[in-house]
Amino acid sequence: MTDSSTSESHYFSSNPPPATLPQHTAQANAFVTHHHAHSRRVVLLTSGGTTVPLENQTVRFIDNFSAGTRGATSAEYFLSQGYAVIFLHRQFSLLPFSRHYSHSTNCFLDFLSEWGRIGEGEEGEDGGAATPDVVVKAKYRREMLSVLRKYRKAKEQRLLLLLPFTTVTSYLFTLRAIACEMRCLGNEALFYLAAAVSDFFVPPDRMAEHKIQSGDVPETTSSAIPGGGGGGKKLVVDLDPVPKFLKRLVEQWAPEAMIVSFKAGAPFSLYTMLFTLETDSSILLKKCNQSLDRYAHHLVIGNILATRKYEVLFVEEGSAQWVRLPTSDGNSGGSEEVEIESLIVPEVIKRHEKMLLGGAAAH
Ligand code: PAZ
Fold first, then answer.
1. CATH fourth-level superfamily of 263-363
2. What CATH number was assigned to the domain covering residues 1-107+136-205+243-256?
3. Which residues have CB under 6 Å of ligand 1?
4. N or C: which end of the chain has fewer CB atoms below 10 A?
5. Which pLDDT tens digit goes with each residue over 219-246?
6. What pLDDT, in 10s, does the model give residues 249-295?
7. How far is 57 from 346, CA to CA, in rounded Å?
8. ipTM, 2 decimals?
């Protein structure tokens, strides 16, 4: 066994599987079997950030940044292109369709009014005597009807399977199980890994059972706060690296599938850029190429957090290409109405189709 497969086996044998695993695996199995029988392509789409609990009875945890916008939005575009979608997402992050009305600055009740009431303070047709109906306000109706129709089609044709995760461990156990269920699809299966997954975790043998009490934290001689604020106490968290599962996914769990990963870059400081002469874009390209070299999958989509809604970088073996939203003046840089996922998803599908025409995936 190689070092990485030893650490993977150790990870799965030393961490408890999530209680939901048998149920989620059975749901994935039924979903894949159904769509395989209908010769429909299936995409496993991951979305949202994983957590790393600091205690078994978790009160505190480390989180990974992601609202789930990329994943939830992409899911809708895959559905519109005829794919069946397994949406493996962080619990309570954005979901396809409902994302239009949740987590927004509006409360969903702002989309509604009482029947017959055009504006605040006006009475309904019955003069307020009978219980009025609740209806969608006229200005939202057209768009909501369109979202509702797509949502109902996805539901009626069983095209969307929602499976939630919270911790990095539950994410990895579920990803592995679903990947194995999808093997029967061969290269018709697509993995679109947009979730932000922790690179570090607390192994079970070092995990506190209950909430870490500030009284239990040892005194230290040094303090980050001048004057020793906090009495010299420091909570030092000792994390181990999470084994590199993308390699396992590519080589063993889904060897025939097309695999697309995302790579997030944060803007670098002016200081770093001046001294390395590297730009955000060149650093992002380097990170994407490193990922491709290391895992030998098909496509890495790089994005910088500050500009991820307007531009992404497609990196494949031997090529790199920016995909950008045009502005109303014809330059790139973003537009309010067009979602960048409406450009990303067709580009990914184009590559999936090319791979299907060319036969099995070559890693
Ligand atoms: O969910 P969101 O739209 O807020 O963010 C999306 C994203 C930046 C997490 C995603 O596009 C991404 O880059 N995921 C991979 C992150 C990483 O592990 O590098």
1. CoaB-like (3.40.50.10300)
2. 3.40.50.10300
3. 66-70, 194, 196-197, 262-264, 303, 308
4. N
5. 776 555 555 555 677 888 899 999 999 9
6. 999 999 999 999 999 987 666 666 666 666 788 899 999 999 999 99
7. 43
8. 0.99
